[in-house]
Write a structure and sequence with these properties.
- The complex is a heterodimer of chains A (about 90) and B (about 400).
- Chain A is an all-alpha fold and about 90 residues long.
- Chain A has one domain: ACP-like (Non-ribosomal Peptide Synthetase Peptidyl Carrier Protein, Chain A, Orthogonal Bundle).
- Chain A has 3 helices and no strands.
- With about 400 residues, chain B is α/β, with parallel strands linked by helices.
- Chain B has 16 helices and 15 strands.
- In chain B, the strands form 3 sheets. Chain B has a 7-stranded mixed β-sheet with strand order 4-10-9-8-7-5-6, with helices on both faces. In chain B, strands 1-2-3-13 form a 4-stranded mixed β-sheet. A 4-stranded antiparallel β-sheet of chain B has the order 11-12-15-14.
- In chain B, strand 11 (about 320) and strand 12 form a beta hairpin.
- In chain B, helix 3 (about 60-75) runs antiparallel to helix 13 (about 280-295), helix 8 (about 160-170) packs parallel to helix 9 (about 195-205) and helix 14 (about 295-315) runs parallel beside helix 16 (about 375-400).
- The radius of gyration of chain B is 22 Å and the shape is globular.
- The chains are: A mainly alpha (about 90), B alpha/beta (about 400).
- The interface of A and B includes residues 50, 55 and 56 of A.
Amino acid sequence: MSTSQHEIEVRIQKLLASYLESSNHPELEKHSAITPDTNLVSDFTLDSFQVMEFMMELEESFDIMIDMNSLSNSHTVRDLAKIVSDELE
Amino acid sequence: MALLEKFAAAAAIREQLQAGGHDPTQVVIERIISPTEGLVEGRHTILAGTNNYLGLTFDPACVEAGRNAIREQGTGTTGSRMANGSFAAHTALEQELADFYQVPYGMVFSTGYAANLGTLTALLKKGDAVLLDADAHASLYDGCQMSGADIFRFRHNDLVSLEKRLQRLGERAQNCLIITEGLYSVMGDCAPLVEIVKLKQQYGALLLVDEAHSLGVYGDHGCGVAEAQGVMDQVDFFVGTFSKSLGAMGGFCVSPHAELELIRYVSRPFIFTASSSPSIIASTHEALRQLKARPELRETLWRNARRLYEGFKAHGFEVGPELSPVVAVRLSGKELALSFWNRLLENGVYTNLMIPPASPDQHSYIRCSVSAAHTEQQVERIIEVFVGANLFANATTVFRE
């Protein structure tokens, strides 16, 4: 059975929390507030390097490859879940 | 004025950079005294961050070649080669570069950036796949993005990460270009090209190696890291620049593939750019001759690099993983790095500041590039000024606490 969009979103939320913790991000306390609408750039002020690094984490966790071109307008957890979901199909 | 509001982010970055005293991106060198010395705010300053690896910018033969070219061919070509024709000197340099890399085909571009853009946008199209080292230079990223190809990054110098992606590509791996640099310009570490070549062969991909920082530095003949690792004949495309070891400006691509000659017909960054001025081509050509004829330049460069690298280590600085003419010192935190860099400049040493997101990881670095033209005394002085800046930084930290 394929993983649902919701399940992917939940997993990405956990991965994001774990990434923020491992990188000792200054906005770590916002952890609990991560939702599908959380924007990695505007809510957590991840810089371009951190976004790319987090993508690498997603690739390894879901065992997929993400085309860099698909990221230009995708910065919320929901956007990323859609990308992951497409790749898993 | 919404169009202009986007600059607010750049203004914030500028403010942050200026907070340390000097803006690291706006240093003016009032007078160039030698390949390794300039005047900054009236101070004699050692240039320890200008990628002048062989120190050829003031070489008498190179200067004379440039001067003669202006006299004989004029100041510029006034346009692109497709429209205006090619000066014989440009085609001669292309042949010389191809011969140097022991391949039949070569092209020159007006900058190193244009060489990567021009090569990649012609080589790749929508539907092709690129596997790009995560720490690759911006020009390689930009060239890939402009091409429309699917771009997949692999972890820096990580063979497991690369192979995993080749496996995932399946049959597409045979329609894929792997892109690495020879020497990486921030940390001074080299690509494991022997192993990357094995993977390329196993999966039927092509390989492009950017030797921008390694030309003139690595290999018995100075071709770069692929030569040093004995895999030159397995590289499909070499790109590089004239603006570092060759002391001029411009870029090149050389290849064993005849298709390189067809890139001339389809590469927009090549077609729609004026070709380099004759003086640049002439001094580059002479610098290439010097590079080949004077291996002692490389020996001096490596001696200086070792002195600086070991000197930093002996004083407890955290340096990059391997000895190379790029020596980066890791510092804890952006603010400390900015203040450290300012201290170095104020004490007559110009270096490069690398802070996130411009650094290859979440750390901040002060990066030095060593030159064959640095004297022993200059290298010792660089170390001395670093030690002084470190004492100052530690004292300041303690004071703040």
